Amino acid sequence: MKINRRHLMLGAAAGAATLAMPAVVGAQQARIIRYTHYQPGRLDQPKHAAALAFKSTVEGLTAGRIRVDIFPAGQIGPAQQVMEQLRLGSLEMAVVHDGGIAGVYAPYQAFSLPFLWENQAIAWKVLDGAFGAEMAEDMRKKVNIRLFAHADNGIRHITNSKRPIVTPDDMRGLKIRVQPSPVFVKLMETLGASASAIDWGELPAALSQGTVDGQENGVTNILAASLYQSQKHITLDGHVYSLHAYMMSDRFFNRLGKEEQAAVLQGVEVAKVIHRGMTAAQDANAEVILKEKGMTVQRLTSAQIDAFRQRAQGPVREWLDKEIGREWTEKLQNATRRAQEAA
């Protein structure tokens, strides 16, 4: 079923790309949305397929009054810089990963609590529900960034070039790259590894040169940067359900007319569905995909995963409570429990 959904989403994305065209009416007067993301500019990449769908939807609904210019692969700059530009209103729109968001809006780190969600269905109930809306409004008020929606950055797994990992003790002595977010440093340290915060653009070189032994990412990002070329082993532990957020400068959004705002919101909804579907399909087929790339895959049992959870979740929760306060972690875990009970 998930493979069929993947085909559906790829087809939708390809159709969106085919329909995308520059505005022909009043092109010189068109309002421009510069839209940046961090995956390669290819249709097999969820972020870019979704970006093309957003462009097609918004330009079509506004009859060219808005033009969307897409800058893939981090062309505008690193995540922290992009977040600052959104906050100041000097950039219109971006889709940024969780670690980059946390540098400007610290409560977003709550989503990095390890082993929080069992599956995508639970995650989406929390993200699309009252908790997600409350955090989005808090973010808008505090940093002037409008958070429209969340999509998948992939379920994060641990890769390395040294040895198979099946227990937390196997992590000892490994140098693991994490995204520039303190909570990820804390997570890897609780598992016994040495953590190095390295920006996404520098990761392939850090792995190939042996600066670090391994890293942690979802299937989509492993494929996007061809990390399998320097990483022999992957452990499907699923320690964090990683996120991308669709965000816009609040100043820019408020300058749009009601019909233009509606077009943006509809474009985000279309993009979100495509983005989630493609990434979820890759996550569901992680073992097959990565074995085909030559990686040795360790699929853990529930008991083995629980050993990682017992080692990491408590210390990371304690750290998060000190860094961002108990309010957000408690609300997130309560929202998760409600979603689980309703499932």
UniProtKB/TrEMBL annotation:
NCBIfam families: dctP, TRAP_S1. Its main location: other. Keywords: Signal, Transport. It holds the Pfam family DctP. It is found in: Cell envelope. The lineage of its organism: Bacteria, Pseudomonadati, Pseudomonadota, Alphaproteobacteria, Acetobacterales. Residues 1-27 form the signal peptide. The keyword Manganese does not apply. The keyword Zinc does not apply. InterPro entries: DctP_fam, TAT_signal, TRAP_DctP, TRAP_DctP_sf. It comes from the Bacteria. This is DctP family TRAP transporter solute-binding subunit. PANTHER family: PTHR33376, SIALIC ACID-BINDING PERIPLASMIC PROTEIN SIAP (PTHR33376:SF4). Belongs to the bacterial solute-binding protein 7 family.
